[in-house]
Protein 1
Amino acid sequence: MISRLHPTQARKTLSALGRLLYDVEPRTLWDRDTDTLDRRYRKLRLRYRDFANEHLAPQELRADLSVTDDEIVTLFQTAARQGFQTEQLPRPFGTGGLRAMIGGVLWPAVLKSEEFAAGCAGLGLAILAHDLGTAPLLLSGDRKAIGMLRDIYKEIAAGEPAIAAFAITEPGAGSDVEDTAGAATADIVTRARKVAGGYQLTGRKCFITGGRVARWVTVFAALEDRGVESWTCFLLDKSMPGFSVGRGERKMGQRAADASELILDDVFVPDERIVGELESGWALNRNVLNFSRPGVAAIALGIARSAFEHAASFCRATKLGGRPLISYQDVQLSLAEMLTKIQAARALVWQTARYGVPAEATGALPKAFAARVAWEVSTEAMELLGDHGTLHAQGVEKAARDARLTLIYEGTHQINLLAIVEGQTGAELG
Ligand SMILES: Cc1cc2nc3c(=O)[nH]c(=O)nc-3n(C[C@H](O)[C@H](O)[C@H](O)COP(=O)(O)OP(=O)(O)OC[C@H]3O[C@@H](n4cnc5c(N)ncnc54)[C@H](O)[C@@H]3O)c2cc1C
């Protein structure tokens, strides 16, 4: 019997207006948050969740152990048929809304990233990385590059697996190509040499998400023997002679997404495939990171949610001392802490989406916060499950492994904190 002091009972003593103003509905935070969105984004969020529930979540444990490139390509095409791989341009050029290009591109990105990662962060990353690959084309603001994006979208609309990847990282330059101070002395090996009609690219990129399955790659290269200040972005396709895929990394988490080495051996790239202006690559890269970090924050958020959901259902289903685990106050406190962190991370991610165009700090802030949350929540979930927490079948050890990666890619945690400092110097930071 529910106590008369419980909020649902106590509410009955209020007047009709008082009852209207006192919400005691046991609704999920997911539903409450969805209600706050514009109609278009509300519908999109539901569609992303339906897609994740149908195509990602049922495969998450198996795909973590083994998945083929053909499966990833098929998944990409399935997502594309729903319009989820062409959202950076408005209709009729893509499947985005009217605000897709300016200011509105972040909302679909963060909503989609959370849902896909909640379904399976590995499969999710494999099909989310495409938007990162095409981001330089859009963010260059260059009509020619936006034309390239349109052409890729046309291929996708025709059913082609025209997957894109983004390549900045090199064997000797990870953080150094994401940070002002590091970039000044970065050890760059990927270089572009001017030849008649275009550039000849030689060098190596590593840890490129989707590098193996992508058809298109936005590659950043230094001109001749100069440094990052000469960086220029080129759109390469895999059929170009001299362009090959090297080693695939065997990594701890998000294993369904490949992280591959790309080898450029005198690849001729015509002038028409320069993205934006010559030597504008560094600025473009910095802005791509501003845009992509909120998406990575949303991936981390989705992982945290998945860990929480796995843990909560375990605590409901498991008995300890004859009582469900969830009836113990210690367990409830732990779940409440997890939920609070998840909700705080979502608030931060959505706040950045509201800015429309993220700045350096507003891009890095949710990433730094949510990646920590994902790690804390997933390890807390493992603790709640005890020995079961170590079992693959329970999903929480996978969540912890998946979470760890969000502290590293799109800039390590330290690099994101430094971006907050750089971005707010001259403002809160003096
Ligand atoms: C799963 C995965 C997917 C990835 N996908 C892509 C992709 O699609 N495209 C792409 O281009 N790259 C990708 N990367 C690369 C990724 O962005 C880099 O790994 C990342 O930037 C870190 O670089 P690093 O590994 O060289 O670390 P390092 O730069 O060697 O850093 C080592 C340590 O030093 C710290 N550090 C470095 N500089 C500073 C500083 N100035 N101040 C304080 N601490 C510092 C770092 O925080 C870190 O703790 C991916 C990586 C992973 C793991």
Protein 2
Amino acid sequence: MKHFLILAAIGGTLFTAGCGGIAADSPAARNSLSSTNTMKFPLQRTEEEWRKILTPEQYHVLREAGTERAFTGKYYATTEPGIYRCAACGEILFKSDDKFDSHCGWPSFSEIAAQGKVIERDDTTYGMHRTEVLCANCGSHLGHVFDDGPGPKGLRYCINSASINFADTNSPTFITPEKK
Ligand SMILES: [Zn+2]
């Protein structure tokens, strides 16, 4: 177990730069949703309510714009058919059809499940210029989108496993996603 953790830490360090990831616990991450708090999303909850609903890890990533370490999330290597919902509000955000192995240690998708499911926003924290991806329904932080993806749009949505919940095709919460 100890060796695994050390390897995971090394892997995280090596691959973080390539994927534009950031250390989960840096103070700047905690403030990066501050301007989002003034945006109006269909689902409104107080931070106190979110804290009760989410696990501490989910809260840190979804509500404080944290980033889980590479290769530690539960979905970075999953290939089963199904859908990925927002872990905060349950909205369907991504489909397994669009998931691909980007070798970066986070679940990566070439598309969102349907138009309007996410909101993109400039993120200039950590001296980088990236595009942050938020759930359009509840405003929670999901990850970032980069323009080096494999699909026709050339996009790579690099998403934290903590931000999403997978439902396979046999799951009671699985439904066929709406058409794009
Ligand atoms: Zn959501």
